[in-house]
């Protein structure tokens, strides 16, 4: 059936299968921007002749399983929560981070984070339940004889399905809060002295106070993770698998971790052989724009254009914010293409056009593009890096502050505070990145690093997935750290042993000396007598 719809697929299938290996891939996806990113990888796998089956919750935001032109097979999990519940959760989440969080104390923010995590965990558990309690579905999946599972640690459950199906799995993701999953479950070494914890917005060069802050944040996220996340799941995993296990132990079995960043974006840091940095795998040369859009872009003349989007999740802003932004944009000589679904602001200038959707990659690759205003999601940042466009970052939540901090540190972006932003701040920031040539030069430098790789990120990602399929895992890359306890890992037992040995020797020597001294003393005394 797939072949009839896609004759080229049949061709690709025949072609690939004859020269290499055709596998069956099953996917436990994460919604929203994560799906946009992993989709590119899955499409490439299909092109190379692999079959891709996606386990998709019946209520989700962006995974359109009713799309008959999709090259993937969908296995729909009938979850008990509705699309409305999901929308309400997202709206609460966005509203909290965009409008409320800035006026709260840290512990109030933490409390809300905990509550949001509970709701999210509840939905994740319900999604898992639909699979683990459905023995017919499990039998069907077992019969399908998949070779590998692709998962994302943010959507807990993928690793559990891989365990049930007894197949190897590969992770694809950007980060976890405080790098907690990579560090604690993946064994990734992260010295807090120069590896900034994600979501802190720190760089690799930290003052004493920043290092202290970073260190404490690592401890805080570890405790938060153990208390509110791991404890929730350890029992669940043990129950389902019928043996005592933990979430972290199961996650640690990932064969390969495909991280969606690269050294143009990351600060240099230690990593393990089963970590592959494949940031920007979705980037492509720009395609021509739709005619009407191209005319608008050309009308900007020598001033060029600015591309503006706050991502796939933020559709509208408060009236106050959109007025400030529109007023700032109207003061610029550039033409602006703004992706926005909210109410049209009254201050909108004649140089600004609002679109429901924009071909972001094609616009960023347009020769007239001067700057990119972004919320700081990794997908958008990588498209800007790829095309060498300087950025103005307006981060709001999740990894966005961190991503923008990286770009600011690399000299390719200016950050504007979303909560305190005035019209003039945005105008100044845009003028800086457009007219001060250092920003463009730095963006081009990053672009060159991104392009100058021996193997393209997408090919590397596909290679490792195929490797895992061919060899039924990548155990030779797995560090023995997974078998150690925390005190063994940090050699605390060895240090304790050495300390005791040294102390014993010192004690014995001291006793001997004391003994000698006494004896000498006695002899001397006797002589005197
Ligand atoms: C999720 O929440 C609902 C209602 O609050 C509750 O009935 C249900 O038991 C929870 N599910 C899980 C898996 O915790
Ligand atoms: C976005 O629009 C929805 C309805 O269209 C509204 O309920 C919500 O408050 C708006 N969000 C903001 C931040 O204004
Ligand atoms: C351009 O920006 C850089 C980095 O912020 C700064 O050092 C330099 O002074 C700026 N140049 C001008 C002409 O403003």
UniProtKB/TrEMBL annotation:
Pfam families linked: UDPGT (PF00201)
Membrane topology: Single-pass membrane protein
Listed EC numbers: 2.4.1.17
Main EC class the enzyme belongs to: transferase
Coiled coil regions, renumbered to chain: none
PROSITE patterns: UDPGT
SUPFAM superfamilies per UniProt: UDP-Glycosyltransferase/glycogen phosphorylase (SSF53756)
Membrane-spanning ranges: 494-517
Protein family membership: Belongs to the UDP-glycosyltransferase family.
PANTHER family: EG:EG0003.4 PROTEIN-RELATED, UDP-GLUCURONOSYLTRANSFERASE 2A1
Name of the protein in question: UDP-glucuronosyltransferase
Organism: Ficedula albicollis (Collared flycatcher)
Lineage of the organism: Eukaryota, Metazoa, Chordata, Craniata, Vertebrata
């Amino acid at each position: 059936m797939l072949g009839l719809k896609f004759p080229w697929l049949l061709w690709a299938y025949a072609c690939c299968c004859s020269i290499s290996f055709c596998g069956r891939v099953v996917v436990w996806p994460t919604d929203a921007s994560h799906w946009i990113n992993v989709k590119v990888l899955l499409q490439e796998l299909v092109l190379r002749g692999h079959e891709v089956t996606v386990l998709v919750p019946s209520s989700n935001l962006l995974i359109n399983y009713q799309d008959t032109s999709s090259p993937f097979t969908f296995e729909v999990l009938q979850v008990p929560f509705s699309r409305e519940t999901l929308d309400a959760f997202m709206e609460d989440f966005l509203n909290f981070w965009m409008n409320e969080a800035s006026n709260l104390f840290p512990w109030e923010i933490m409390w809300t984070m905990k509550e949001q995590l509970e709701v999210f965990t509840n939905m994740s558990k319900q999604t898992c339940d639909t699979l683990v309690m459905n023995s017919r579905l499990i039998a069907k999946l077992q019969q399908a004889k998949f070779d590998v599972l692709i998962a994302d640690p943010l959507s807990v459950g993928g690793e559990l399905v891989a365990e049930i199906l007894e197949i190897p799995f590969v992770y694809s993701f950007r980060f976890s809060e405080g790098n907690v999953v990579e560090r604690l479950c993946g064994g990734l070494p992260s010295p807090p002295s120069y590896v900034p914890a994600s979501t802190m917005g720190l760089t690799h060069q930290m003052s004493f106070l920043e290092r202290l802050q970073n260190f404490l944040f690592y401890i805080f996220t570890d405790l938060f993770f153990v208390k509110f996340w791991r404890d929730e799941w350890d029992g669940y995993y043990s129950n389902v698998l019928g043996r005592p296990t933990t979430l972290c132990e199961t996650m640690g079995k990932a064969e390969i971790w495909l991280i969606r960043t690269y050294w143009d974006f990351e600060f240099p840091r230690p990593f393990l052989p089963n970590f592959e940095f494949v940031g920007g795998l979705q980037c492509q040369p720009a395609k021509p724009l739709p005619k009407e859009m191209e005319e608008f872009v050309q009308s900007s003349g020598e001033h060029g254009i600015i591309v503006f989007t706050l991502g796939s999740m933020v559709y509208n802003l408060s009236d106050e914010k959109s007025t400030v932004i529109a007023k700032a944009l109207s003061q610029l000589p550039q033409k602006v293409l703004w992706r926005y679904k909210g109410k049209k602001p009254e201050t909108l200038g004649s140089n600004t056009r609002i679109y429901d959707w924009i071909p972001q990659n094609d616009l960023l690759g347009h020769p007239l593009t001067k700057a990119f205003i972004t919320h700081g999601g990794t997908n958008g940042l990588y498209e800007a890096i790829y095309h060498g466009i300087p950025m103005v970052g307006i981060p709001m939540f999740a990894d966005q502050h961190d991503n923008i901090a990286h770009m600011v540190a690399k000299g390719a972006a200016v950050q504007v505070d979303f909560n305190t932003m005035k019209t003039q701040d945005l105008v100044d920031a845009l003028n800086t990145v457009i007219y001060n040539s250092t920003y463009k030069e730095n963006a081009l430098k990053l672009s060159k690093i991104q392009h100058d790789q021996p193997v393209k990120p997408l090919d590397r990602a596909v290679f490792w997935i195929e490797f895992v399929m061919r060899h039924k895992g990548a155990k030779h890359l797995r560090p023995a750290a997974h078998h150690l306890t925390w005190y063994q890992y940090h050699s605390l037992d060895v240090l304790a042993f050495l300390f005791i040995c040294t102390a014993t020797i010192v004690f014995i020597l001291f006793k001997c000396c004391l003994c000698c001294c006494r004896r000498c003393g006695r002899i001397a005394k006797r002589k005197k007598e």
